[in-house]
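User: Here's a protein and a ligand (HMH). What would the complex look like?
Assistant: Let me lay out the input and then the predicted complex.
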Amino acid sequence: PEKTGMIDTWLDKHSSIYTAATRHAFVVSIRDGSVDLSSFRTWLGQDYLFVRGFVPFVANVLIRAGKESGESSDMEVILGGLASLYDEIEWFKREGSKWNVDFSTIVPQKANQEYRRFLEALMSSEVKYAVIMTAFWAIEAVYQESFAHCLEDGNKTPAELTGACHRWGNDGFKKYCLSVKNIAERCLENASSEVLAEAENVLVRVLEHELAFWEMSRGGN
Ligand code: HMH
């Protein structure tokens, strides 16, 4: 029998915020086809800015995987994620032209600024590898869970939005998230109680930032 890891224990404990982040009304509206396209455009522009800030965060995780992990395969997992962010930025640019969203004029909204500030704080060398890895997993997993939901049986996701859903809802991304989760779990197994408490706190804060990001998107400009 598989033993339950820390992350699943925490998700159980904080299930209401986890569900709020992964089944948000904005995501549900993509799935049921009722999505407000101005909200989608807001999300697109804000997420493009978010991803540009996420690249240095993942690069920081990569550097730590090379120095602090003790497990050489961690680097390949993170490098794969970093490489796919290049394609992701190109995808955002194509979507931007498709939806007439001019990224050069977009200003980050408050929830976006706060999320990016949080990521910057996590990049401090004082934050333990297990903690940043837990955060990294949660950031990716919320998108994976959310967009996979839009592709599940019975969806009425509009055809012009399935590209976004496949980007994060596909099986390869799901497997990648599982690899990141396994890295985080391995680190948490050997962590002190202080580090565990910090990782749990950071996990909940990621979920709060993700929830606020969906709220911001739904609210439009
Ligand atoms: C807000 N969270 C946000 N944007 C993203 N692109 C990701 C996570 C990626 O998983």
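Summary: Residues 47, 50-51, 139-140, 143, 210, 213 surround HMH (CB under 6 Å).
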